[in-house]
Amino acid sequence: MYARGMTVREIRGHLEELYGIDVSPDLISSVTDAVLEAVAEWQGRPLDTCYPLVFFDAIRVKIRDEGFVRNKAVYIALGIQPDGTKEVLGIWIEQTEGAKFWLRVMNELRNRGVADILIAVVDGLKGFPEAINAVFPEAIVQTCIVHLIRNSMSFASWKERKFIAQALRGVYRAETPEAGMAALEAFEEGPWGQKHPAIAMSWRRHWDQVIPFFAFPEGVRRIIYTTNAIEALNSKIRRAVRTRGHFPGDDAAMKLLYLVLNHAADEWKRPPREWGEAKSQFAVIFGERFVI
Q: What is the pLDDT of residues 33-45, one digit of tens each?
């Protein structure tokens, strides 16, 4: 329990305060080092051959680096297996994102056994679509609809957000790309689009990665835009890091994230209720690539 991102000094002080005992720093370090060994083993474990869906997301955490507290990105890859169960494929800490970084991540996944990703859901990460297709050329790169909606809400006041979300439903629930663009243009010309022009602009910037969404039937669409799994995971991580202020280093952050993710994995024994319909659709759309 004392390995969750705490420093040796914090653990030692905690034990002294609660139990009046003095534990050597060497003992505490050996315990936390054991967690790092587990992290390294977990991060390099073999993965499945095919993942129908992989959600790539990022959260920001404060980590001390070279004497300064920096705002670093923690990237998480959450895979949906052919039976619908979830698996965190890996976590990576990086100060800046870019094509070279993502290419390294993609090659790491391939070297661990991933031969195919059917749909990669991303949050407009710089250089990511190119990196995915360089390693997994047949993967469909899809912008995360939930993130687009959340980004749209950031331009509006709290009182407006419910109405703007309703107005945008016509865009991503449209039957075709043409109908979706027509709905976006209608939103753009309407009162909310006129008041917040940056919303439609953000959708237009990502439109090339929104378009694949319209080719999927409702069952697959629902799985893509109902990303409760990644949202719930991020919520757990944010709760865990909120009281930390900042981490003393990358290793401390990795230990905490590893423990949080493994605890969350205990709750992932069942596939989402939408998976039954989506599984049949994946089998039809992707044929032999959908490896069960």
A: 677 888 889 999 9
